[in-house]
């Protein structure tokens, strides 16, 4: 039987909701929404398209946040009444239902508190993730492909739009590297905690002796640049090569020289995109990624602390931030946060909320 939720439990949860609004309060938040609505309805609002789009995104976000707070407060108020009625009637099943709903509201409040921690300059942006295989031969390239699928499944589950920009396939199994783009609410803020070296321990399917094998892969995440960032790249600083896309046969992208590779000559940074049918589309996507990587490098030079966003990651021994163990026992453990899960299959199938939430809280403690 589920333990009864006490009035004090309700008061604590109500206080945690109030903390989300501190110090503005609902009235101040509603006033700010009205002010933004007036700006959005101005006749000349679209004179500056970028500013107008930014305004509408902010307005939508604030409206959604206010609705969430109101729904949570209404939910708690209703549960208080239902709990009292269940106690008076001695209905144990109804009390259990109240407990389940209370837990759901608590989880929503936890997520909103996490969102408050995503207040970095680029946290609300789209993200570009690069996955690279490291030490471990075929096991490492296969592991990189497993991570790629894991993050694509996470995006699907979480309602984040994901797009594969480029994939470099290994001669044996899996991939050498891949570039992915994620667009959604706080995509960069959430996925940035995944940056680091990931380690896989398992009985190798590529070893005839069936011995246990350790392999590594690196994950780097950078925020996607916006037009307003004004990362100018002179044409003389880049070299553009076109080539035929590689990968499993049968795709239309393999029939023409549509893939694009851009090399930034001053830094040696290389990006490529091959998943669009048009060479122009691939060039535009590759330029966006190049701008993102150059912006990140510029920020690291200005502030060494920003290395945590997407600093250099070594895919080898002694550098790992998370271990995925499939033999002799089964467990996935984050070595920074101590968060662990005992079902690796679920994790590889995209159930990463626990790790990402723990990562956000850990990062907030490191940077109070």
Largest sheet: 8 strands, mixed
Secondary structure class reads: alpha+beta
CATH class division of the largest domain: Alpha Beta
Percentage of β-strand residues: 15-25%
What is the CATH topology classification name of the largest domain? Alpha-Beta Plaits
- Overall geometric form: flat
Please list the strands of the largest sheet in the order they lie side by side: 2-3-1-5-4-9-10-11
Q: Enumerate the spans where pLDDT stays under 50 for 5 or more consecutive residues.
A: 249-253, 305-311
In DSSP terms, counting alpha (H) and pi (I) runs of 4 or more, how many helices? 10
Oligomer: single chain
Query: In angstroms, what separates the terminal alpha carbons?
Result: 40 Å
The helical percent reads: 40-55%
């Amino acid at each position: 039987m589920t333990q009864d939720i006490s009035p004090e439990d309700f008061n604590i949860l109500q206080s945690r909701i109030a903390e989300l609004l501190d110090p503005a309060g609902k009235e101040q938040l509603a006033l700010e929404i009205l002010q933004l609505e007036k700006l959005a309805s101005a006749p000349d609002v679209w004179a500056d398209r970028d500013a107008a789009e930014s305004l509408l995104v902010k307005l939508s976000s604030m409206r959604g946040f206010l609705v969430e707070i109101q729904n949570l407060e209404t939910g708690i108020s209703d549960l208080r009444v239902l709990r009292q009625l269940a106690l008076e009637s001695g209905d144990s099943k109804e009390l259990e239902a109240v407990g389940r709903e209370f837990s759901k509201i608590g989880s929503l409040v936890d997520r909103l508190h996490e969102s408050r921690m995503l207040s970095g300059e680029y946290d609300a942006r789209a993200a570009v993730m690069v996955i690279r295989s490291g030490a471990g031969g075929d096991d490492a390239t296969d592991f990189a492909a497993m991570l790629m699928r894991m993050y694509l499944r996470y995006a699907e589950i979480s309602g984040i739009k994901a797009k594969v920009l480029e994939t470099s396939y290994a001669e044996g199994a899996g991939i050498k590297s891949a570039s992915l783009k994620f667009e959604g609410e706080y995509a960069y803020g959430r996925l940035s905690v995944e940056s680091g070296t990931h380690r896989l321990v398992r009985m190798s399917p590529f070893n005839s002796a069936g011995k246990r094998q350790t392999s590594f892969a690196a994950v780097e995440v950078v925020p996607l640049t916006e037009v307003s960032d004004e990362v100018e790249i002179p044409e003389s600083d880049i070299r553009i090569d076109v080539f035929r896309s590689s990968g499993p046969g049968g795709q239309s992208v393999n029939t023409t020289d549509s893939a694009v590779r851009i090399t930034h000559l001053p830094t040696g940074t290389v990006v490529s995109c091959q998943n669009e049918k048009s060479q122009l589309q691939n060039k535009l996507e590759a330029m966006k990624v190049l701008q993102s990587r150059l912006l990140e490098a510029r920020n690291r030079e200005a502030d060494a602390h920003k290395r945590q966003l997407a600093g250099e990651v070594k895919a080898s021994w002694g550098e790992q931030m998370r271990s995925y163990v499939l033999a002799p026992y089964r467990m996935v453990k984050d070595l920074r946060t101590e968060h662990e899960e005992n079902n690796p299959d679920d994790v590889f199938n995209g159930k990463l909320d626990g790790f990402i939430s723990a990562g956000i809280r850990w990062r907030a403690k490191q940077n109070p």
